[in-house]
Every structure is written in structure tokens, then in C-alpha cells.
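Before a colleague's protein record goes any further, I have to sign it off. What it holds is a sequence and that sequence's fold in C-alpha cell form. My question to you is simply how this chain folds and whether the C-alpha cells agree. Thanks in advance; the entry in question is below:
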Amino acid sequence: MSLSFQQSVIEEFRANGGRVGGPFEGGDLLLLTTTGARTGTERTTPLGYVRHAGALLVVASAGGAPRHPAWYHNLLAHPLVRVELGTDTFEALAVPAEGARRAELFEAVTLAAPGYLDYQRQTSRPLPVVELAPAEPADWTASGPPTNLADKLLEVHGWLRGQLRQVTAEVETHLATRATHQGPGQPPPPGLGLQIRQRCLAFCQTLEFHHTGEDGHLFPGIAQHHPQLAATFDRLRAEHRTVARLQRAIGELLTDVGIAEPVRFRAELARMTDELTAHLAYEEEVLLPLLADVPWPPAPPAA
């Protein structure tokens, strides 16, 4: 698909509530926006999709080309993606299926859209099947739209805590399953799996964005009005640096998910959880009283 044709499809999709004509008329189509693995620039791609057991599935077929499409490499680097489906837009976590799960989902896809079998026959690479899963942690729900900056901070912190709990639970489940499938005298199979990798990577990237925003904007803005809290902000920034070091250690383990050692990963995740949990509690203690009277969303600038 040429870039000009792709852009025309995107524009038609958005102008007509998800309906397009031409070769895609009547088909199930969504827009997937990923973040460039190298550039950090957002890229939007029209893709066919299949619904299966409540999930949205997309296939990195590239028309049977020998290499994975760019959008697939992008979501491996930045798992949080934006999905446009009809008139709805939402954030999702992109998780490529593995092993028996991939085989099961590819069969479901080809039953709904047999053309993917032709694409698979044209290439030696197994076509990745990607689940677009809910980005929110399973046990997290917002208490309502934030009306002030204190509410917004609590909302972000609640999301981060929920992600930590979910990643930790998935690691424990993985370790238990790993032990169950270990035969007598056999070493356990290596690796963490892409489900854990994608969720943990998304969490780390969101946390880094949050802390960068606090260091660059929130803390300096509050410090202008509360210079007596200089030592407090020094401590918060130092805690950010500590958490960032632990994040980098986790990121190094996720570089090659196929050989990442789950027990070591669990230990590193526990270290970061302890540091971050203490940091979030202290930040809330000192900042929430100062932010309760600051409206959210912020008022637009005066003309």
C-alpha cells in the first residue's frame, strides 16, 4: 500500500465514521497508531482485524512480504498503541501471541479471513498475530473524571500501582506454570514471554514520561510558589533517579525476552516496586494538599 493511498484511506475512515470504499469496502478495518521504534514519531496504519473471544486481532502479514511491517517493529518497542474503530478511539496494549496461543489465534483469523493463509504461503516467516488488549490493569478503575490536579495525580498513581500489581501477578503465574511444566531432571524452559514483556515495557515507558513531566514542569511550577519546599523537591528528584536506575536494570533484562531469567526479573521488579511504592506515598503526602485547589483540566490560555 503506497503512502499516498494509505493516507487517503485514513482520511476517508475518519471522515465517515470508520467506513471506507474501494478494496476495503464492507471489510473490518481499524486504524492503528504506533510510535516509531527509532524516530519516536507517531505512525498510523489502516489494518484489517478479526474479533475473537472479545479480543481484537491484527496480523503482521505485509501481504506475505519476507519481512515484518514497520508497525510491528514499532509496537515491540512501544507496546501502548492507539486504536480507532468506527467512531471510537482508545488506548490498547499490543501483545504478539506465542507458541500454542499464536497457532490458536491464527486458526481463528484464517477461518474469518482465509486470505491470510495465502499470505502465509508466500513467506517463510510465521505471520505474527497481535492481540490488542485493554491497556488498563485488570483491577484498576478510575473514581471519576479528575476535577483538580490532586485528583489527576492520584489517578496516574493508581494506574501505576495497578500496572505493578498486574505485572507482578503475571510473573508469579509464569513462574508457577514454568515449575509445573518442568520434567524430572530437566531445566525449566527459559524466557518470560511477550505478555509480560509488553506490559512491563509499557509500564516503564509511562512511568518515565510521568517522572520527566514532574521534573520538568510540575515541580518547578509548585516551587515558584513554595520555595520553602526546595529540599522536598530535591528528595523527589533523587527518588526519580533511583527508580530510573531500577527501570534500566529491568529494561536490560527485557532486551531479549526469550532468554530473560524470570527469577532474576522477579527480584528486580520487587526492588523497583518497593522503591516506587514508597516514593508515590511520600509524593502524595507532600503534594496533594498543594494541588487540591488547582483546576484540572487546566483552563485554556487567555486570547
Notes: The beta strands are 29-35, 42-48, 50-52, 55-59, 80-85, 88-96, 129-134. Helices lie at 3-15, 70-77, 99-112, 115-121, 149-180, 194-225, 230-254, 262-291.
